[in-house]
């Protein structure tokens, strides 16, 4: 039932994005955002909890709720806007500026491919489409969607915009395809901002340890491909700006574990910087801090055991 409803919503966004005049498109988006904030109670609660984790010491509850509403509006506008741009690709160059394209071209000139690091921040599908228009061969690493029909729909859209898809499962296929992309001197786009369960490493994210993947950095170390962080945010209405940061190479000093940790810390700090500047552009409905470090769990268990001993005594 949930998947059927999702297909209906996506189908309606596709329809609206194709026929509604640009001036009215964002009014539709804001309406959907209001509806999502009002009725998606579970996701609203997660977003407010996440925002409180990040900004509880610096922002009031009223400010946090305002950012939460803006986040829902942003997600809804991005949804209808995505389909509008897919139906009118000629508008992408007109409305999406790129700052730092020379950084990407300089990195590709090394001939080892590029590991592009970003986040679920702003209209990242639009970022990929815009890079493809710059004659960059772009491939995005992503999870399969739970609904196969929606999965196929979005893969078709990406193919239409000349963006390749590399799925995280099966794992070995993902690894081999990713390495091939880099050896072919193409762009491997990876989002480094989601909870990585018990894998990866724990680094500070808004002052709280968060499980973060190391795979993209391993790819860079294995192939020599530079890491190029890039982000997209809205300037207003349909206008967006892509910022491509200077290339980063993984430090060569220290153990492999130390090099991995330092690179992940540096990239996570950069992601946090952009989220702080544009907090409504990030997907706060994701449980970024769900996984906890082993030592933290052990401490909680020891404290609980201590409580039990006291109670028994």
UniProtKB/TrEMBL annotation:
Pfam family of the protein (one): Lip_A_acyltrans
Keywords: Acyltransferase, Cell inner membrane, Cell membrane, Membrane, Transferase
Location(s), subcellular: Cell inner membrane
Single GO MF descriptor: acyltransferase activity
Protein's UniProt keywords contain Endoplasmic reticulum: no
GO BP term, example: glycolipid biosynthetic process
Signal peptide start-end: none
UniProt main location, coarse: membrane
GO cellular component terms given for this protein: plasma membrane
Protein name stated in the entry: Lipid A biosynthesis lauroyl acyltransferase
Species of the source: Velamenicoccus archaeovorus
Lineage, highest ranks first: Bacteria, Pseudomonadati, Candidatus Omnitrophota, Candidatus Velamenicoccus
């Amino acid at each position: 039932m949930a998947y059927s409803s999702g297909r209906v919503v996506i189908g309606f966004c596709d329809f609206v994005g194709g026929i509604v005049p640009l001036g009215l498109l964002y009014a539709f988006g804001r309406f959907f955002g209001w509806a999502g904030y009002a009725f998606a109670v579970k996701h609203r609660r997660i977003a407010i909890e996440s925002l409180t984790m990040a900004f509880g010491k610096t922002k009031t509850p009223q400010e946090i709720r305002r950012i939460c509403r803006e986040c829902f509006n942003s997600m809804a506008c991005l949804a209808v806007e995505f389909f509008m741009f897919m139906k009118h690709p000629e508008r992408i160059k007109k409305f999406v500026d790129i700052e730092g394209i020379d950084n990407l071209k300089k990195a590709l000139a090394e001939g080892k491919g590029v590991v592009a690091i970003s986040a679920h921040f702003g209209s990242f599908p639009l970022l990929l489409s815009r890079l493809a228009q710059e004659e960059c061969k772009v491939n995005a690493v992503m999870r399969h969607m739970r609904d196969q029909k929606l999965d196929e729909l979005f893969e078709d859209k990406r193919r239409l915009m000349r963006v390749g898809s590399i799925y995280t499962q099966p794992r070995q296929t993902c690894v081999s395809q990713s390495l091939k992309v880099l050896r072919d001197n193409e762009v491997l786009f990876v989002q480094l901002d989601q909870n990585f369960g018990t894998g990866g490493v724990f680094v500070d994210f808004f002052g709280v340890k968060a499980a973060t993947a190391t795979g993209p950095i391993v790819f860079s170390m294995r192939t020599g491909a530079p890491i190029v962080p890039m982000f997209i945010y809205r300037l207003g209405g349909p206008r967006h700006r892509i910022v491509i940061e200077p290339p980063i190479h993984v430090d060569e000093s220290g153990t492999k574990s130390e090099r991995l940790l330092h690179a992940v810390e540096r990239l996570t700090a950069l992601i946090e910087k952009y989220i702080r500047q544009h907090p409504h552009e990030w997907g706060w409905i994701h449980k970024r801090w769900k996984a906890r470090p082993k030592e933290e769990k052990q401490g909680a268990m020891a404290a609980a055991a201590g409580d039990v001993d006291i109670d028994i005594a």
